[in-house]
Amino acid sequence: MKNKKILIGITGGIAAYKICFLVRQFVKAGAEVKVIMTPSATKFVSPLTLSVLSRNDVIINTFPEIDNFDKVEKLEQSTWHIDLAMWADVFIVAPATANTLGKIISGIADNFLLCTIFASRCPVILVPSMDEDMYRNTIVQRNIKNLESAGYKIIYPIYGELASGIYGIGKMPEPEEIFSYVNSFINRRIDLKGKKILITAGPTREPIDKVRYITNYSSGKMGFELARAAYDRGADVTLITGPVTLKETGNVKRIDIETTEDMFKEVKKIYNNFDLIIMAAAVSDFKPKSVYKGKLKKEKLDHLKLELIKNIDILKFLGEKKKDYKLYGFALETENGIENAKKKLKEKNLDLIILNNPLEEGAGFESETNVVTLIDNNKVRRLSKMTKYEVGNIILDYYLEND
Ligand code: CTP
What we know:
This protein is 32% helix and 22% strand. It is α/β, with parallel strands linked by helices. It folds into two domains: 5-186, Flavin prenyltransferase-like (Rossmann fold); 196-402, 3-Layer(aba) Sandwich (Rossmann fold). The chain has an eight-stranded mixed β-sheet, with helices on both faces. Bound molecules: cytidine-5'-triphosphate.
């Protein structure tokens, strides 16, 4: 981040207060930061705070508020949006409200921030953040999709407690997460160009009857972040995912499945076309022996016994068939982690196993971060707590070092 020029645009959403922490983080990392706010953003957080933290003036208005036009030099401010747009290495708009997103895609430039966005030559990263119903609105969704197609980078909102107190999707990712995204983005290496990578993610669902199923707590985040990291580094990425609420990045080829059997079918069709396969999915080990055709009724039942049978171990299958690809698996262990992971590495014929314990602080299914240990036949390397995106990048670094 040293000497990097970061332009931050803040619009009028409640998450605006969190941008103070983001600014601080960039400054601490050695970056130069300038902040633009929309007039509505100033209702949520003070420009003075941002000015002190960024060590720069904060710009809000397109036109200088002067009534004496003898002071012509003051009018130079009206060209600042061009200067600022040229100055920045990267431009982050966070939080980006539905209003601002809609204006950008419609070409409206009625405030200083919007003028600067349109004048920018550097990458512009938008961080939409709003109430869940607003976020899910068809027009907002269409705008985000069109903005992405127009070349804007999007950091998608996450699931969590919203300002209304309701849990839902729309929450802005934490400043650390945005920082780490921008950091990797700026220092991105396109070192996986030409590599074909298959990643599986999320849980699987095993039906009991037409309305019920067995599943697990997997959110799919680790697999999706791996896919994003690989995509950002130029790889050709295919993502087979169980049911999750996440959106894949850019042109990642996504295949949606429900059951382990479905995932296996998709894997079987394509596994021979890849250089690297990473099984990050939390595959259900068992499934009900029989699936009721309709809805299972509780009448006449004092208790219910479900008979479960074993599912295929997809990773083991891939290990047995392995010829030209590298194969990485995950091990989810709550005790004797290293020992069990080493056993899986061997039994499933893997090149690398990534051990994680969901009970550990900073790890877990819904968490933005993870604490993992990389284990191969020669080494055990425990990583500190970091975002799942960074974990993904380290796994990909490992691949390049050992390919
Ligand atoms: N895996 C798989 N197919 C299964 C079960 C697991 O491909 N039916 C893969 C997972 O995607 C993961 C690895 O195997 O990469 C290890 O999964 P994990 O749940 O930790 O271990 P299991 O082998 O299922 O053993 P156990 O649950 O007994 O620990």
